[in-house]
Amino acid sequence: MKLLFLNRQVVRELLPMRACMDALADAFRAYSSGKSVQPLRTMMKVPATDDILASMPGYDGASQSLAVKLITVFHDAAEAGFDSHQGLLVLFSAEHGNPLAIMDAIEITAIRTAAASGVATEALANKDATTLAILGAGVQARSHFHAMTEARDIKSVRIWNRSRDRAEALTEELSAKNSADVTVADTAEAAVSGADLICTVTAASEPILKGAWLQPGVHLSAVGSSTPSKRELDSEAIVRSKLFVDSRESVLSEAGDFLIPKSEGAVGDDHMIGEIGELLSGKVEGRQNKEEITLFKSLGMAVEDVAAAHLIYERAKAGNRGVWIEM
Ligand code: NDP
Protein backbone atom coordinates (compact mmCIF):
# COMPACT_ATOMS: atom_id res chain seq x y z
CA MET A 1 0.00 0.00 0.00
CA LYS A 2 1.32 3.43 -0.95
CA LEU A 3 0.77 6.75 0.81
CA LEU A 4 1.36 10.20 -0.66
CA PHE A 5 3.39 12.60 1.48
CA LEU A 6 2.81 16.30 0.77
CA ASN A 7 4.98 18.89 2.46
CA ARG A 8 4.17 22.47 3.37
CA GLN A 9 5.47 24.00 0.14
CA VAL A 10 3.54 21.58 -2.05
CA VAL A 11 0.34 22.04 -0.04
CA ARG A 12 0.65 25.82 -0.44
CA GLU A 13 1.12 25.52 -4.20
CA LEU A 14 -1.79 23.10 -4.63
CA LEU A 15 -4.32 25.13 -2.62
CA PRO A 16 -4.91 28.48 -4.34
CA MET A 17 -7.36 30.73 -2.54
CA ARG A 18 -10.08 30.72 -5.23
CA ALA A 19 -10.10 26.93 -5.62
CA CYS A 20 -10.20 26.52 -1.85
CA MET A 21 -13.11 28.98 -1.54
CA ASP A 22 -15.09 27.06 -4.17
CA ALA A 23 -14.44 23.72 -2.43
CA LEU A 24 -15.43 25.20 0.93
CA ALA A 25 -18.66 26.65 -0.43
CA ASP A 26 -19.65 23.11 -1.48
CA ALA A 27 -18.53 21.75 1.91
CA PHE A 28 -20.57 24.38 3.79
CA ARG A 29 -23.72 23.50 1.81
CA ALA A 30 -23.21 19.78 2.40
CA TYR A 31 -22.56 20.29 6.13
CA SER A 32 -25.67 22.40 6.69
CA SER A 33 -27.87 19.98 4.79
CA GLY A 34 -26.80 17.03 6.95
CA LYS A 35 -24.64 15.27 4.35
CA SER A 36 -21.43 15.57 6.37
CA VAL A 37 -20.23 14.26 9.69
CA GLN A 38 -18.18 16.29 12.09
CA PRO A 39 -18.04 15.62 15.83
CA LEU A 40 -17.04 18.50 18.06
CA ARG A 41 -13.26 18.64 18.13
CA THR A 42 -11.34 17.25 21.07
CA MET A 43 -9.10 19.90 22.58
CA MET A 44 -6.60 18.70 25.16
CA LYS A 45 -4.68 21.20 27.25
CA VAL A 46 -1.02 20.47 27.81
CA PRO A 47 -0.55 20.45 31.61
CA ALA A 48 0.46 23.72 33.28
CA THR A 49 0.22 25.66 30.00
CA ASP A 50 -2.34 27.32 27.77
CA ASP A 51 -1.18 25.11 24.87
CA ILE A 52 -3.52 22.77 23.04
CA LEU A 53 -3.46 19.50 21.11
CA ALA A 54 -6.64 19.10 19.08
CA SER A 55 -8.06 16.31 16.98
CA MET A 56 -10.52 17.16 14.18
CA PRO A 57 -12.03 14.20 12.30
CA GLY A 58 -14.61 14.70 9.60
CA TYR A 59 -16.43 13.40 6.53
CA ASP A 60 -17.26 15.92 3.82
CA GLY A 61 -20.43 14.92 2.01
CA ALA A 62 -19.63 17.18 -0.95
CA SER A 63 -16.31 15.58 -1.90
CA GLN A 64 -17.24 12.29 -0.17
CA SER A 65 -13.91 12.26 1.60
CA LEU A 66 -12.67 11.36 5.03
CA ALA A 67 -9.80 12.83 7.05
CA VAL A 68 -8.53 13.79 10.46
CA LYS A 69 -6.43 16.83 11.30
CA LEU A 70 -4.15 16.77 14.33
CA ILE A 71 -3.13 20.24 15.34
CA THR A 72 -1.23 21.93 18.15
CA VAL A 73 -1.75 25.53 19.20
CA PHE A 74 1.30 26.79 21.09
CA HIS A 75 0.99 30.57 21.25
CA ASP A 76 4.60 31.19 22.33
CA ALA A 77 6.08 28.89 19.69
CA ALA A 78 7.19 31.88 17.59
CA GLU A 79 9.95 32.61 20.09
CA ALA A 80 11.56 29.32 19.04
CA GLY A 81 10.87 29.92 15.34
CA PHE A 82 7.74 27.76 15.00
CA ASP A 83 4.24 28.69 13.85
CA SER A 84 1.62 28.94 16.61
CA HIS A 85 -0.55 26.37 14.75
CA GLN A 86 1.20 23.23 13.51
CA GLY A 87 0.01 19.82 12.52
CA LEU A 88 -0.63 17.00 10.14
CA LEU A 89 -3.62 15.82 8.20
CA VAL A 90 -4.30 12.20 7.26
CA LEU A 91 -6.66 11.62 4.33
CA PHE A 92 -8.39 8.22 4.17
CA SER A 93 -10.28 6.45 1.42
CA ALA A 94 -13.99 6.78 2.23
CA GLU A 95 -14.52 3.57 0.27
CA HIS A 96 -12.06 1.16 1.89
CA GLY A 97 -10.75 3.10 4.89
CA ASN A 98 -7.12 2.89 3.80
CA PRO A 99 -4.92 5.95 4.36
CA LEU A 100 -4.26 7.85 1.12
CA ALA A 101 -2.07 10.76 2.11
CA ILE A 102 -0.32 12.59 4.91
CA MET A 103 0.04 16.31 4.48
CA ASP A 104 1.22 19.40 6.29
CA ALA A 105 -1.63 21.12 8.12
CA ILE A 106 -0.02 24.51 8.75
CA GLU A 107 -0.82 25.70 5.24
CA ILE A 108 -4.20 23.99 5.11
CA THR A 109 -5.22 25.79 8.30
CA ALA A 110 -3.84 29.12 7.12
CA ILE A 111 -5.56 28.98 3.73
CA ARG A 112 -8.86 27.22 4.48
CA THR A 113 -9.63 29.52 7.44
CA ALA A 114 -9.26 32.62 5.31
CA ALA A 115 -11.11 30.92 2.44
CA ALA A 116 -14.06 30.33 4.79
CA SER A 117 -14.13 34.03 5.62
CA GLY A 118 -13.80 34.77 1.90
CA VAL A 119 -16.88 32.66 1.09
CA ALA A 120 -18.88 34.40 3.81
CA THR A 121 -17.69 37.83 2.65
CA GLU A 122 -18.73 37.13 -0.93
CA ALA A 123 -22.17 36.13 0.32
CA LEU A 124 -22.70 38.90 2.88
CA ALA A 125 -20.62 42.02 2.26
CA ASN A 126 -21.77 44.96 0.22
CA LYS A 127 -20.67 44.51 -3.40
CA ASP A 128 -18.89 47.86 -3.49
CA ALA A 129 -16.73 47.19 -0.42
CA THR A 130 -13.22 48.53 -1.08
CA THR A 131 -11.74 49.30 2.35
CA LEU A 132 -10.42 46.55 4.59
CA ALA A 133 -9.27 46.64 8.23
CA ILE A 134 -7.26 43.74 9.64
CA LEU A 135 -6.78 43.49 13.40
CA GLY A 136 -3.78 41.21 13.91
CA ALA A 137 -0.62 40.65 11.88
CA GLY A 138 0.08 36.91 12.09
CA VAL A 139 -0.50 33.99 9.74
CA GLN A 140 -4.26 34.54 9.51
CA ALA A 141 -3.84 38.27 8.89
CA ARG A 142 -1.76 37.52 5.80
CA SER A 143 -4.09 34.85 4.46
CA HIS A 144 -7.18 36.97 5.18
CA PHE A 145 -5.68 39.75 3.07
CA HIS A 146 -5.57 37.28 0.16
CA ALA A 147 -9.10 35.99 0.79
CA MET A 148 -10.59 39.47 1.09
CA THR A 149 -8.90 40.68 -2.10
CA GLU A 150 -10.31 37.56 -3.80
CA ALA A 151 -13.82 38.31 -2.48
CA ARG A 152 -13.94 42.04 -3.19
CA ASP A 153 -12.07 44.74 -5.13
CA ILE A 154 -10.04 45.99 -2.18
CA LYS A 155 -8.26 49.29 -2.75
CA SER A 156 -7.17 50.24 0.73
CA VAL A 157 -6.09 48.17 3.75
CA ARG A 158 -5.31 49.27 7.31
CA ILE A 159 -3.55 46.84 9.62
CA TRP A 160 -3.48 47.20 13.40
CA ASN A 161 -1.53 44.85 15.64
CA ARG A 162 -0.63 44.71 19.32
CA SER A 163 3.04 44.75 18.31
CA ARG A 164 3.48 47.52 15.79
CA ASP A 165 6.70 46.11 14.30
CA ARG A 166 4.85 43.01 13.09
CA ALA A 167 2.13 45.17 11.49
CA GLU A 168 4.84 47.19 9.75
CA ALA A 169 6.56 44.05 8.44
CA LEU A 170 3.30 42.64 7.07
CA THR A 171 2.38 46.00 5.53
CA GLU A 172 5.73 46.14 3.76
CA GLU A 173 5.39 42.55 2.53
CA LEU A 174 1.84 43.02 1.19
CA SER A 175 2.57 46.43 -0.36
CA ALA A 176 5.50 45.01 -2.31
CA LYS A 177 3.38 42.33 -4.01
CA ASN A 178 -0.08 43.92 -4.37
CA SER A 179 -1.69 47.00 -5.84
CA ALA A 180 -3.85 47.86 -2.79
CA ASP A 181 -2.70 50.72 -0.60
CA VAL A 182 -1.67 49.03 2.67
CA THR A 183 -0.89 51.09 5.78
CA VAL A 184 -0.38 50.58 9.51
CA ALA A 185 -3.04 51.99 11.88
CA ASP A 186 -2.03 53.35 15.31
CA THR A 187 -5.11 51.95 17.04
CA ALA A 188 -7.74 49.31 16.38
CA GLU A 189 -10.36 52.09 16.32
CA ALA A 190 -8.43 54.01 13.67
CA ALA A 191 -8.07 50.83 11.60
CA VAL A 192 -11.80 50.06 11.53
CA SER A 193 -13.01 53.63 11.17
CA GLY A 194 -14.78 53.85 7.81
CA ALA A 195 -13.87 50.27 6.86
CA ASP A 196 -16.24 48.23 4.67
CA LEU A 197 -14.73 44.91 5.78
CA ILE A 198 -13.11 44.02 9.11
CA CYS A 199 -11.22 40.85 9.96
CA THR A 200 -10.32 40.12 13.58
CA VAL A 201 -7.52 37.55 13.54
CA THR A 202 -5.79 37.74 16.93
CA ALA A 203 -5.30 35.45 19.90
CA ALA A 204 -6.75 38.13 22.19
CA SER A 205 -8.73 37.05 25.26
CA GLU A 206 -10.49 40.39 25.80
CA PRO A 207 -12.32 42.47 23.17
CA ILE A 208 -10.11 44.32 20.73
CA LEU A 209 -13.11 45.52 18.67
CA LYS A 210 -15.96 47.61 20.04
CA GLY A 211 -19.44 47.71 18.56
CA ALA A 212 -19.53 51.48 19.01
CA TRP A 213 -16.85 51.78 16.31
CA LEU A 214 -18.81 49.96 13.59
CA GLN A 215 -20.18 51.95 10.70
CA PRO A 216 -23.44 50.96 8.96
CA GLY A 217 -22.94 48.43 6.17
CA VAL A 218 -19.71 46.93 7.44
CA HIS A 219 -19.11 43.17 7.21
CA LEU A 220 -17.02 41.47 9.88
CA SER A 221 -15.11 38.19 9.93
CA ALA A 222 -14.46 37.22 13.58
CA VAL A 223 -11.89 34.45 13.45
CA GLY A 224 -9.53 34.58 16.42
CA SER A 225 -11.36 33.36 19.48
CA SER A 226 -12.34 29.70 19.73
CA THR A 227 -12.93 29.00 23.42
CA PRO A 228 -15.93 29.97 25.59
CA SER A 229 -13.94 32.32 27.84
CA LYS A 230 -12.10 34.31 25.15
CA ARG A 231 -13.44 36.90 22.77
CA GLU A 232 -12.28 39.55 20.30
CA LEU A 233 -15.60 41.42 19.99
CA ASP A 234 -17.47 43.22 22.75
CA SER A 235 -21.14 42.49 23.38
CA GLU A 236 -22.32 45.59 21.53
CA ALA A 237 -20.60 44.39 18.34
CA ILE A 238 -22.57 41.14 18.54
CA VAL A 239 -25.85 42.88 19.39
CA ARG A 240 -25.51 45.33 16.48
CA SER A 241 -24.72 42.60 13.92
CA LYS A 242 -26.71 40.10 11.90
CA LEU A 243 -24.88 36.98 12.97
CA PHE A 244 -23.97 34.12 10.64
CA VAL A 245 -21.81 31.19 11.75
CA ASP A 246 -19.95 28.22 10.30
CA SER A 247 -21.58 25.76 12.70
CA ARG A 248 -24.34 26.42 15.25
CA GLU A 249 -23.17 23.45 17.31
CA SER A 250 -19.59 24.76 17.48
CA VAL A 251 -20.68 28.30 18.33
CA LEU A 252 -22.88 27.09 21.19
CA SER A 253 -19.99 25.07 22.56
CA GLU A 254 -16.87 27.15 21.81
CA ALA A 255 -17.49 30.77 20.82
CA GLY A 256 -16.80 33.26 23.62
CA ASP A 257 -17.70 36.02 21.14
CA PHE A 258 -21.28 34.72 21.29
CA LEU A 259 -21.45 32.88 24.63
CA ILE A 260 -20.29 35.82 26.76
CA PRO A 261 -22.96 38.28 25.50
CA LYS A 262 -25.45 35.41 25.74
CA SER A 263 -24.51 34.87 29.41
CA GLU A 264 -25.06 38.60 30.00
CA GLY A 265 -28.57 38.32 28.52
CA ALA A 266 -27.63 40.63 25.63
CA VAL A 267 -28.59 38.04 22.96
CA GLY A 268 -30.34 34.68 22.74
CA ASP A 269 -29.68 31.73 20.46
CA ASP A 270 -32.16 33.17 17.97
CA HIS A 271 -29.66 35.99 17.35
CA MET A 272 -27.84 33.51 15.10
CA ILE A 273 -29.52 33.93 11.74
CA GLY A 274 -28.00 30.79 10.34
CA GLU A 275 -25.03 28.86 9.07
CA ILE A 276 -23.13 29.91 5.98
CA GLY A 277 -24.14 26.62 4.37
CA GLU A 278 -27.82 27.50 4.93
CA LEU A 279 -27.23 30.96 3.47
CA LEU A 280 -25.51 29.54 0.37
CA SER A 281 -28.36 27.05 -0.09
CA GLY A 282 -30.99 29.80 0.15
CA LYS A 283 -32.47 28.40 3.39
CA VAL A 284 -31.85 31.65 5.25
CA GLU A 285 -31.66 35.20 3.95
CA GLY A 286 -28.51 37.26 4.10
CA ARG A 287 -27.99 41.00 3.90
CA GLN A 288 -31.27 42.88 3.35
CA ASN A 289 -29.92 46.37 2.71
CA LYS A 290 -26.68 48.35 2.44
CA GLU A 291 -26.87 49.63 6.00
CA GLU A 292 -26.97 46.34 7.89
CA ILE A 293 -23.93 45.19 9.81
CA THR A 294 -23.21 41.54 9.03
CA LEU A 295 -20.92 39.25 10.99
CA PHE A 296 -19.44 35.85 10.21
CA LYS A 297 -18.27 34.05 13.35
CA SER A 298 -15.73 31.40 12.38
CA LEU A 299 -14.66 28.60 14.70
CA GLY A 300 -13.15 26.45 11.97
CA MET A 301 -14.64 23.14 10.92
CA ALA A 302 -13.11 19.73 10.25
CA VAL A 303 -15.08 19.50 7.00
CA GLU A 304 -13.15 22.54 5.74
CA ASP A 305 -9.92 20.62 6.25
CA VAL A 306 -11.34 17.49 4.63
CA ALA A 307 -12.56 19.40 1.57
CA ALA A 308 -9.22 21.19 1.22
CA ALA A 309 -7.27 17.93 1.65
CA HIS A 310 -9.35 16.18 -1.00
CA LEU A 311 -8.65 19.01 -3.43
CA ILE A 312 -4.91 18.96 -2.66
CA TYR A 313 -4.74 15.17 -3.07
CA GLU A 314 -6.53 15.17 -6.43
CA ARG A 315 -4.34 18.01 -7.72
CA ALA A 316 -1.19 16.29 -6.43
CA LYS A 317 -2.03 13.07 -8.27
CA ALA A 318 -2.89 14.95 -11.46
CA GLY A 319 0.31 17.00 -11.31
CA ASN A 320 2.56 14.19 -10.11
CA ARG A 321 3.49 16.11 -6.95
CA GLY A 322 4.61 14.85 -3.54
CA VAL A 323 6.48 11.72 -2.52
CA TRP A 324 4.94 8.24 -2.47
CA ILE A 325 5.84 6.18 0.61
CA GLU A 326 5.49 2.41 0.81
CA MET A 327 3.64 1.47 4.01
P1 NDP B 1 -0.33 33.97 14.93
O1 NDP B 1 0.36 33.39 16.11
O2 NDP B 1 0.36 33.93 13.62
O3 NDP B 1 -0.72 35.50 15.24
C1 NDP B 1 -1.36 35.82 16.44
C2 NDP B 1 -1.82 37.26 16.37
O4 NDP B 1 -2.60 37.54 17.55
C3 NDP B 1 -0.70 38.26 16.35
O5 NDP B 1 -1.10 39.36 15.57
C4 NDP B 1 -0.59 38.64 17.82
O6 NDP B 1 -0.02 39.91 18.05
C5 NDP B 1 -2.04 38.68 18.19
N1 NDP B 1 -2.27 38.58 19.62
C6 NDP B 1 -1.88 37.58 20.44
N2 NDP B 1 -2.30 37.82 21.70
C7 NDP B 1 -2.97 39.00 21.66
C8 NDP B 1 -3.63 39.79 22.64
N3 NDP B 1 -3.71 39.39 23.90
N4 NDP B 1 -4.20 40.96 22.24
C9 NDP B 1 -4.14 41.35 20.96
N5 NDP B 1 -3.52 40.66 19.99
C10 NDP B 1 -2.95 39.49 20.33
O7 NDP B 1 -1.73 33.22 14.88
P2 NDP B 1 -2.69 33.00 13.62
O8 NDP B 1 -2.68 34.19 12.76
O9 NDP B 1 -2.40 31.67 13.03
O10 NDP B 1 -4.12 32.87 14.36
C11 NDP B 1 -4.78 34.04 14.84
C12 NDP B 1 -6.00 33.62 15.65
O11 NDP B 1 -6.91 32.91 14.81
C13 NDP B 1 -5.66 32.66 16.81
O12 NDP B 1 -6.44 32.98 17.95
C14 NDP B 1 -6.07 31.32 16.27
O13 NDP B 1 -6.35 30.38 17.28
C15 NDP B 1 -7.26 31.67 15.42
N6 NDP B 1 -7.54 30.69 14.37
C16 NDP B 1 -8.84 30.46 14.03
C17 NDP B 1 -9.17 29.53 13.08
C18 NDP B 1 -10.58 29.33 12.65
O14 NDP B 1 -10.84 28.43 11.85
N7 NDP B 1 -11.51 30.14 13.10
C19 NDP B 1 -8.11 28.70 12.43
C20 NDP B 1 -6.77 29.09 12.79
C21 NDP B 1 -6.50 30.05 13.74
P3 NDP B 1 1.55 40.07 18.32
O15 NDP B 1 2.20 40.15 16.99
O16 NDP B 1 1.63 41.34 19.10
O17 NDP B 1 2.01 38.87 19.13
List the helices and strands and how they pair.
Elements: E1 2-6, H1 8-14, H2 17-32, E2 42-45, E3 52-60, E4 65-73, E5 85-92, E6 99-104, H3 106-124, E7 131-135, H4 139-151, E8 156-160, H5 164-177, E9 181-184, H6 188-192, E10 197-200, E11 219-222, H7 235-240, E12 242-245, H8 248-254, H9 256-263, E13 272-275, H10 276-280, E14 294-297, H11 302-319, E15 323-326
Parallel strand pairs: 1-6, 7-8, 7-10, 8-9, 10-11, 11-14, 12-13, 12-14
Antiparallel strand pairs: 1-15, 2-3, 3-4, 4-5, 5-6
Helix pairs in contact: 1-3, 2-3, 2-11, 3-4, 3-11
Bound molecules: NADPH dihydro-nicotinamide-adenine-dinucleotide phosphate (NDP).
Residues 73, 84-85, 109, 113, 136-141, 161-163, 166, 201-205, 208, 223-224, 226, 298-300 line the site of NADPH dihydro-nicotinamide-adenine-dinucleotide phosphate.
Short description:
This protein is an alpha/beta fold. It has helices at residues 8-14, 17-32, 106-124, 139-151, 164-177, 188-192, 235-240, 248-254, 256-263, 276-280, 302-319; strands at 2-6, 42-45, 52-60, 65-73, 85-92, 99-104, 131-135, 156-160, 181-184, 197-200, 219-222, 242-245, 272-275, 294-297, 323-326.
